[in-house]
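2024-03-11 09:14:02 DEBUG pipeline.ingest accepted 1 chain
2024-03-11 09:14:02 DEBUG pipeline.ingest length=312
2024-03-11 09:14:03 DEBUG pipeline.predict start
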Amino acid sequence: MTAPTYSILIPVYNEEPVLPTLFPRLDALVAGLDAPCEVLLIDDGSRDRSAELIRAALPTRPWLRLLRFARNFGHQAALTAGYDHALGAAVVCLDADLQDPPEVILEMAKRWREGFEVVYGVRTKRQGETPFKKFTAWAYYRTMRSLAKVDLPVDAGDFRLMDRKAVDALKQVRERSRYLRGLVAWIGFRQCAVPYDRAERFAGETKYPLRKMLRLAFDGILSFSSVPLRIALILGFVVSVLSILAGLAAIVVKLGGWYTVDGWTSLAVLVCFIGGVQLTVMGIIGEYISRIYDEVKARPLYLVAENAGGAA
């Protein structure tokens, strides 16, 4: 196989209903690119026939590769494995669900040829999503941008093209709680946006339900912002001041002879409030400590069970 100019990374997790439609779209994309291309499908421990369908497609598509995990390690780990194994001078991340149209890669490649080293897709429309999902996504991206220490683009996911120099820089960052959108912004390089309309999922179920979306959001905030710790510090300081004032007021009431048994309810509420604040602060600190613990263990980000097709 000729050394590819483009590498297209596609994480796959239980995408059996989508793959029969994805392959023809990839055929057209590979034919339309201006240079040789490889497509690396990373099977993230699928429990359906996804890996089987990919293996069946390998003999007729020399540009297709399969990287299968030993178990499910998650979307961010799958993308990381793709970056680690990509051979191209330009590397593109694409989801298998066809919400991000593969044809947009042609425009990304054009901007890369103009000299940009990171070209990310910006969603102008989000078809097939509920108003709640659209609002939370809108609010999260803007909140994250205001909290983070790096310049995070809004309405941009993992659909992007990266130059080999940027990919090599990203590969040096091996932290466990990975938020690639933030890491790509952190490494810098010349970046630009390509707007596109995000389509509705073609088939199957979303691999990012609310629980996983919240987890990804927390990973992003805790990885790129110390604001939660500052909030905990300020909250603790405010509660301490209020507690001191409440204690002084209690002393004045006692010395003035105004003390009565009444007020136990308010006292109980105050104690519960302070206890809740303490637990909240400890929880925030604990989240940061748990990430330190994960880094110290230094386990592999993923384990590969199979590497087949293409130049493998």
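2024-03-11 09:14:41 DEBUG pipeline.report The mean pLDDT is 78.
2024-03-11 09:14:41 DEBUG pipeline.predict end
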